[in-house]
Amino acid sequence: PGDQEAGELGLAAVPGRQAAFRQGLEAAVHYARAVGCPRIHVMAGRVPLDTDRAAVAGEMETTFIENLRYAADLLSKEDMIGLLEPINNRITDPRYYLNTPHQAAAILEKVGRPNLKLQLDLFHCQIMDGNLSRNLEMYFPLIGHIQIAQVPGRHEPNSPGELNFPYIFELLESLGYTGYVGCEYAPKGDTLEGLGWLRSYWESRGLQHGGTSKAAK
Protein backbone atom coordinates (compact mmCIF):
# COMPACT_ATOMS: atom_id res chain seq x y z
CA PRO A 1 0.00 0.00 0.00
CA GLY A 2 2.94 2.39 0.24
CA ASP A 3 3.08 5.05 2.97
CA GLN A 4 -0.50 5.15 4.19
CA GLU A 5 0.23 7.85 6.78
CA ALA A 6 1.30 10.06 3.87
CA GLY A 7 -1.96 9.33 2.06
CA GLU A 8 -0.75 6.61 -0.29
CA LEU A 9 -2.90 3.62 -1.23
CA GLY A 10 -0.65 1.61 -3.50
CA LEU A 11 2.28 2.60 -5.69
CA ALA A 12 2.12 0.66 -8.94
CA ALA A 13 0.83 3.56 -11.06
CA VAL A 14 2.46 6.43 -9.15
CA PRO A 15 5.28 8.11 -11.11
CA GLY A 16 8.54 8.48 -9.21
CA ARG A 17 7.77 5.73 -6.70
CA GLN A 18 9.05 2.78 -8.73
CA ALA A 19 11.84 1.88 -6.29
CA ALA A 20 9.45 1.89 -3.34
CA PHE A 21 6.98 -0.20 -5.33
CA ARG A 22 9.59 -2.87 -6.02
CA GLN A 23 10.63 -2.92 -2.37
CA GLY A 24 7.01 -3.29 -1.27
CA LEU A 25 6.36 -6.02 -3.80
CA GLU A 26 9.33 -8.04 -2.58
CA ALA A 27 8.03 -7.75 0.99
CA ALA A 28 4.56 -8.85 -0.14
CA VAL A 29 6.03 -11.88 -1.91
CA HIS A 30 7.95 -12.76 1.24
CA TYR A 31 4.76 -12.66 3.33
CA ALA A 32 2.71 -14.49 0.68
CA ARG A 33 5.29 -17.26 0.48
CA ALA A 34 5.27 -17.64 4.27
CA VAL A 35 1.50 -18.07 4.52
CA GLY A 36 1.07 -20.02 1.28
CA CYS A 37 -1.01 -17.38 -0.49
CA PRO A 38 -0.52 -17.53 -4.28
CA ARG A 39 -2.25 -14.22 -5.14
CA ILE A 40 -1.19 -10.65 -4.44
CA HIS A 41 -3.25 -7.50 -4.98
CA VAL A 42 -0.98 -5.07 -6.82
CA MET A 43 -2.46 -1.73 -5.79
CA ALA A 44 -2.45 1.00 -8.43
CA GLY A 45 -2.43 3.97 -6.08
CA ARG A 46 -3.91 7.45 -6.10
CA VAL A 47 -3.68 10.37 -8.47
CA PRO A 48 -1.23 12.80 -6.76
CA LEU A 49 -2.75 15.64 -4.74
CA ASP A 50 -3.40 18.93 -6.55
CA THR A 51 -3.06 17.13 -9.88
CA ASP A 52 -5.63 16.86 -12.64
CA ARG A 53 -6.46 13.20 -13.36
CA ALA A 54 -6.62 13.71 -17.13
CA ALA A 55 -3.30 15.56 -17.18
CA VAL A 56 -1.38 12.70 -15.54
CA ALA A 57 -3.37 9.75 -16.95
CA GLY A 58 -0.83 8.94 -19.66
CA GLU A 59 2.18 9.06 -17.35
CA MET A 60 0.40 6.99 -14.71
CA GLU A 61 -0.59 4.35 -17.25
CA THR A 62 2.98 4.11 -18.54
CA THR A 63 4.26 3.73 -14.97
CA PHE A 64 1.58 1.15 -14.19
CA ILE A 65 2.40 -0.99 -17.24
CA GLU A 66 6.14 -0.85 -16.49
CA ASN A 67 5.62 -1.85 -12.86
CA LEU A 68 3.14 -4.59 -13.74
CA ARG A 69 5.56 -6.21 -16.16
CA TYR A 70 8.21 -6.14 -13.45
CA ALA A 71 5.72 -7.63 -10.98
CA ALA A 72 4.64 -10.35 -13.43
CA ASP A 73 8.24 -11.44 -13.95
CA LEU A 74 8.92 -11.56 -10.21
CA LEU A 75 5.66 -13.35 -9.39
CA SER A 76 6.15 -15.94 -12.14
CA LYS A 77 9.31 -17.13 -10.35
CA GLU A 78 7.15 -17.82 -7.29
CA ASP A 79 4.23 -19.33 -9.25
CA MET A 80 2.04 -16.48 -7.98
CA ILE A 81 -0.70 -14.37 -9.56
CA GLY A 82 -0.86 -10.58 -9.46
CA LEU A 83 -4.33 -9.05 -9.13
CA LEU A 84 -5.62 -5.64 -10.25
CA GLU A 85 -8.64 -4.30 -8.39
CA PRO A 86 -10.65 -1.35 -9.70
CA ILE A 87 -11.88 0.79 -6.76
CA ASN A 88 -14.80 3.15 -7.32
CA ASN A 89 -14.07 6.88 -7.25
CA ARG A 90 -17.68 7.93 -6.64
CA ILE A 91 -17.93 6.86 -2.99
CA THR A 92 -14.87 5.02 -1.72
CA ASP A 93 -11.82 6.86 -3.05
CA PRO A 94 -12.16 9.83 -5.43
CA ARG A 95 -8.43 9.85 -6.22
CA TYR A 96 -7.82 6.15 -6.87
CA TYR A 97 -6.34 5.67 -10.33
CA LEU A 98 -7.92 2.33 -11.35
CA ASN A 99 -11.71 2.68 -11.27
CA THR A 100 -13.48 0.30 -13.68
CA PRO A 101 -13.09 -3.27 -14.96
CA HIS A 102 -12.92 -1.82 -18.49
CA GLN A 103 -9.85 0.24 -17.56
CA ALA A 104 -8.27 -2.75 -15.82
CA ALA A 105 -8.93 -5.04 -18.80
CA ALA A 106 -7.32 -2.54 -21.17
CA ILE A 107 -4.25 -2.33 -18.92
CA LEU A 108 -4.01 -6.13 -18.69
CA GLU A 109 -4.17 -6.40 -22.46
CA LYS A 110 -1.33 -3.90 -22.86
CA VAL A 111 0.80 -5.64 -20.23
CA GLY A 112 0.16 -9.03 -21.84
CA ARG A 113 1.19 -11.35 -19.00
CA PRO A 114 -0.88 -14.43 -18.17
CA ASN A 115 -0.13 -14.34 -14.44
CA LEU A 116 -1.84 -10.96 -13.99
CA LYS A 117 -5.60 -11.12 -13.44
CA LEU A 118 -8.62 -9.00 -12.55
CA GLN A 119 -9.74 -8.81 -8.93
CA LEU A 120 -13.41 -7.97 -9.43
CA ASP A 121 -15.07 -6.46 -6.38
CA LEU A 122 -18.78 -6.43 -7.20
CA PHE A 123 -19.40 -3.54 -4.78
CA HIS A 124 -17.09 -1.25 -6.76
CA CYS A 125 -18.28 -2.61 -10.11
CA GLN A 126 -21.95 -1.97 -9.30
CA ILE A 127 -21.25 1.61 -8.21
CA MET A 128 -19.21 2.47 -11.29
CA ASP A 129 -21.02 0.56 -14.02
CA GLY A 130 -23.73 -1.84 -12.87
CA ASN A 131 -24.53 -4.37 -15.61
CA LEU A 132 -23.02 -7.07 -13.39
CA SER A 133 -24.21 -10.11 -15.35
CA ARG A 134 -22.75 -8.86 -18.59
CA ASN A 135 -19.54 -7.67 -16.94
CA LEU A 136 -19.03 -11.04 -15.23
CA GLU A 137 -19.59 -12.86 -18.50
CA MET A 138 -17.42 -10.50 -20.54
CA TYR A 139 -14.47 -10.36 -18.16
CA PHE A 140 -14.70 -13.90 -16.81
CA PRO A 141 -11.54 -15.09 -18.64
CA LEU A 142 -9.57 -12.33 -16.87
CA ILE A 143 -10.97 -12.84 -13.36
CA GLY A 144 -8.58 -14.16 -10.73
CA HIS A 145 -10.58 -13.28 -7.61
CA ILE A 146 -14.09 -12.12 -6.68
CA GLN A 147 -15.07 -9.92 -3.73
CA ILE A 148 -18.57 -9.11 -2.53
CA ALA A 149 -20.51 -6.59 -0.44
CA GLN A 150 -24.04 -5.29 -0.64
CA VAL A 151 -24.61 -1.89 -2.25
CA PRO A 152 -24.79 0.85 -1.02
CA GLY A 153 -24.14 0.00 2.64
CA ARG A 154 -21.19 -2.39 2.07
CA HIS A 155 -22.62 -4.87 4.56
CA GLU A 156 -23.54 -8.57 4.37
CA PRO A 157 -24.90 -9.87 1.05
CA ASN A 158 -28.36 -10.46 2.61
CA SER A 159 -28.61 -6.91 3.99
CA PRO A 160 -30.96 -4.46 2.22
CA GLY A 161 -29.51 -3.26 -1.04
CA GLU A 162 -29.30 -3.40 -4.80
CA LEU A 163 -27.64 -6.76 -5.44
CA ASN A 164 -29.27 -10.19 -5.76
CA PHE A 165 -26.48 -12.40 -4.49
CA PRO A 166 -28.18 -15.82 -4.83
CA TYR A 167 -28.54 -15.02 -8.53
CA ILE A 168 -24.94 -13.79 -8.76
CA PHE A 169 -23.60 -16.92 -7.03
CA GLU A 170 -25.56 -19.15 -9.43
CA LEU A 171 -24.22 -17.13 -12.35
CA LEU A 172 -20.64 -17.63 -11.11
CA GLU A 173 -21.29 -21.37 -10.82
CA SER A 174 -22.74 -21.51 -14.34
CA LEU A 175 -19.67 -19.69 -15.67
CA GLY A 176 -17.45 -22.31 -14.03
CA TYR A 177 -15.84 -20.11 -11.38
CA THR A 178 -13.86 -22.27 -8.97
CA GLY A 179 -11.91 -19.62 -7.05
CA TYR A 180 -12.57 -17.98 -3.73
CA VAL A 181 -15.23 -15.33 -3.11
CA GLY A 182 -13.85 -12.81 -0.64
CA CYS A 183 -16.29 -11.26 1.83
CA GLU A 184 -15.00 -7.71 1.77
CA TYR A 185 -17.82 -6.11 3.70
CA ALA A 186 -18.31 -4.41 7.06
CA PRO A 187 -20.53 -6.59 9.26
CA LYS A 188 -23.52 -4.70 10.63
CA GLY A 189 -22.97 -6.39 13.99
CA ASP A 190 -21.24 -9.55 15.16
CA THR A 191 -19.12 -11.21 12.48
CA LEU A 192 -20.24 -14.80 13.17
CA GLU A 193 -23.91 -13.83 13.41
CA GLY A 194 -23.48 -11.93 10.17
CA LEU A 195 -22.36 -15.13 8.45
CA GLY A 196 -25.88 -16.51 8.82
CA TRP A 197 -26.43 -15.57 5.17
CA LEU A 198 -23.82 -18.14 4.17
CA ARG A 199 -25.39 -20.92 6.25
CA SER A 200 -28.75 -20.12 4.70
CA TYR A 201 -27.24 -20.16 1.22
CA TRP A 202 -25.60 -23.54 1.79
CA GLU A 203 -28.89 -24.98 3.03
CA SER A 204 -30.75 -23.59 0.01
CA ARG A 205 -28.25 -25.45 -2.18
CA GLY A 206 -28.67 -28.74 -0.29
CA LEU A 207 -25.28 -28.42 1.42
CA GLN A 208 -24.12 -28.86 4.98
CA HIS A 209 -22.32 -26.03 6.74
CA GLY A 210 -18.88 -25.91 5.17
CA GLY A 211 -20.09 -26.60 1.65
CA THR A 212 -20.25 -30.43 1.80
CA SER A 213 -23.14 -32.29 0.17
CA LYS A 214 -25.77 -33.85 2.40
CA ALA A 215 -25.98 -36.71 -0.10
CA ALA A 216 -22.29 -37.42 0.41
CA LYS A 217 -22.92 -37.96 4.11
Summarize the structure in words.
Helices cover 43% and strands 10% of the residues. The protein has 217 residues and is α/β, with parallel strands linked by helices. The chain has a single domain, classed as Divalent-metal-dependent TIM barrel enzymes (TIM Barrel), CATH 3.20.20. It catalyses: 3-hydroxypyruvate = 2-hydroxy-3-oxopropanoate.
Topology:
Layout (H helix, E strand, L loop, with lengths): L17 H18 L3 E3 L11 H25 L3 E4 L16 H11 L4 E6 H7 L3 H8 L3 E6 L16 H11 L5 E3 L7 H4 L1 H9 L13
Helix pairs in contact: 1-2, 2-3, 5-6
| CATH A-level architecture | Alpha-Beta Barrel
Number of domains: 1
Based on secondary structure, the structural category is alpha/beta
**CATH topology heading:** TIM Barrel
What is the count of β-strands?
5
Share in β-strands: 5-15%
Number of helices: 8
Helix content: 40-55%
Name the helix and strand elements from N-terminus to C-terminus, one letter apiece: HEHEHEHHEHEHH
Strand sequence of the main sheet, in spatial order?
Answer: 1-2-3-4-5
The general outline is globular
CATH superfamily: Divalent-metal-dependent TIM barrel enzymes
Catalytic activity: 3-hydroxypyruvate = 2-hydroxy-3-oxopropanoate
Protein name: Putative hydroxypyruvate isomerase
Domain Xylose isomerase-like TIM barrel: 10-200
Family: Belongs to the hyi family.
